[in-house]
Amino acid sequence: MIKFLLMVNQQGQTRLSRYFEPVELNRRAAQEAAVVRCCLSRNKEQCSFVEYQDFKLVYRQYAALYVVVGVSHTENELSIFELIQNFVEVLDRYFSRVRLNQIMFHLDSVHIILDEMIQNGHIVETNKNRILAPLTAINKMADG
């Protein structure tokens, strides 16, 4: 099960966080800081899967953007690694070329994409056209 998804920049600032199980707000900030430090401190030759406290971290770097996913110990790391790749490809298709400022200025669209892909901590959709269908409909209504 997916516990959370974070998008952070190279300075370790969280740009998007999405939790799929309840975490207290005061604990959330400390956990995010520790998780980000753990992932950013690793070099590129090290594996992108990390055992961390009571869950595993799967992360991937795209230019100045890190996508970090916390999962339960029973989750398949490679499937989450592919989920991250698919998520970035969907963002890239929607934004034409994904950049950090687009994510910050269009958080609502990024959350809609995440909602289409992941529900209650489980992957429910990977087809890019079906993931983008609600956003396409919203954009058509806004234009028309």
UniProtKB/TrEMBL annotation:
Residues 1-141 form the AP complex mu/sigma subunit domain. It comes from Nothobranchius furzeri (Turquoise killifish). One of its GO terms (cellular component) is cytoplasm. Signal peptide: none annotated. Its main location: membrane. It is a peripheral membrane protein. Gene3D superfamilies: 3.30.450.60. This is AP complex subunit sigma. Belongs to the adaptor complexes small subunit family. InterPro entries: AP_complex_ssu, AP_mu_sigma_su, Longin-like_dom_sf.
